[in-house]
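**Discrete fold encoding**
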Amino acid sequence: MFLNKLVLSHYRNYDHVELTTSNNVNIFVGPNAQGKTNLLESIYVMAMTKSHRTHQDKELIGWNGEQTLLHAEIQKLYGNCKLDLSISSKGKKAKINGLEQKKLSNFIGALNVVMFAPEDLEIVKGTPGIRRRFLDMEIGQVQPSYIHDLSQYQKILVQRNNYLKQNYPGKSTPDAMLDIWNEQLAQYGVKIMKKRQNFIKKLQKWAENIHRGITNDSESLVIRYSPSFDMEPFEDESVLLNQFMIKLSLVKDQEFRRGVTLVGPHRDDLLFFINDKEVQTYGSQGQQRTTALSLKLAEIELIHEEVGEYPLLLLDDVLSELDEYRQTQLIRTFQQKVQTFITTTGLESVHLDQLDHASVFHVLKGNVNGRS
């Protein structure tokens, strides 16, 4: 997968920019707050139809525009592909080769990306919500049906929570209504949990080997799915659905007291262990960084395994955060096989001697001043 061209109109601090990216490695260099990260973000938005930095789509629209327009020309194994995405106060419209997609989920997956930024360390040491978002974004890229299941689940979750809040303890409540919400919640919840479980199994396979290589076989990385209730590995969906319903019945009184749903994939977590010790609690900063790096490199291989070609790799000011050894491991992985986009405040933080034919773009005040 290769990005040949990127065109942005009224995107954040860019009034209009058009980039031709003919090399495998593309470096955006310039001082902070000039728009380097915005360029990487726009590529991510083209892939996922949403930003990794904000939930507010209006923040993506430039000051002088009513909408932002993004255009990308992608080279794929089966031929070239043109992608168009418009974002306005009225919503989003997406086109593939000029044909409007009725559902955004049909657009997602046309372009695959892996983003690695300093804040991705929070995947390892941050809150469960960050890890759930990581799972949702990555699974959604390779399994568009997951996005639909997750959207339906979230809608049901909001409605069920509203029902719980309105029916406080002691108030007479019709159990039939709660039974309906429970059945719908469990139906979509089980689909999400099964897909997460399968994804983590594949991610573990790649991450374990990569982590051993980075640490010269001195460390063994294990990624473990931690659902909101105990489930046997890879059991039948009907059995899991029954377990889900039983668990909901057990916490019913507690949910009414608190006015919130206590069971389901919205409370899942992801755990990391190095040599049988939990990384979040007992791992050193170096081990946490290596775990995050192993995860991102594993994502690259997993996407390749799932879709048949490598994704784009977006490195947002991350090379300066890695020591020379980890940076070398990262460069060795993407060199020659993954088109990579890098942001940095100075080229001294990038081992250019290890890169073949890198394009360097200078970014200043929302302008991209050519290539060298």
The mean pLDDT is 88.
